[in-house]
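Q: How would the structure tokens look for this protein?
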Amino acid sequence: MGLSVIAKVTIQAAVISAFSSILAQTITASQSGQKLVLNYVTLFQFILFALLNTPPNFLWQSWLEDTFPSHHPNAQETDTAVSKNGAMPKGKATPKPQLNIRNTIIKLCLDQTVGAVVNTLLFSLTMGALKASMTPLPHEAVSAPSAAQSLAFLRSGHAVDAQRVAWAPLWEAACAEFWPILAAGWRLWPLVSVVNYSLVESVEGRNLLGNLASVGWGVYINLLAAE
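A: Here is the predicted structure in token form.
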């Protein structure tokens, strides 16, 4: 039995998130003139976030498409193509669906307001909680961990501790970075959404295009999270 569409999209997002994290770490090392030392903790955090965040986003996009379809049948072409007995003549191509401009605008507005607000807050809170819960204690900390040390920390059995998370400061930090992240997203995602809704008909295809755009966005977010 093959994987479901949502599972394929989630795995795809995790792979792209991993690539973005590695690329961001490479850029950071290059800018500082240092040799790249892969931080597996950071890599793990972004892969985990992609695994958690992608399914609800897929469902959100599916709901938007089901509620406000981007395309509808071209009634005039359909009526012309259908024969007298109600069947499509042999060799006659199925009429191409027409773009529904009203629905496309509604989806774009909902995605870039409700969707963007929720996604931005979830990113800040989830990544903040992951970073706080996976911050080594003083006796565990290494100022410049090697790739082997960061991997060993992940495999130690106590890499994640929810008691290390202070939710009040975390919420304050999420609020502080909310508008900068949202504003940065508005420079990219509206264009991606317009292309998605007007040219790509399947939700899977839209997620693929979104994930490809996420490479650049993911690098930005990784660099932001590293500050």
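Residues 25 and 38 are 7 Å apart (CA to CA).

The chain has eight helices and two strands.

Upvote if useful.
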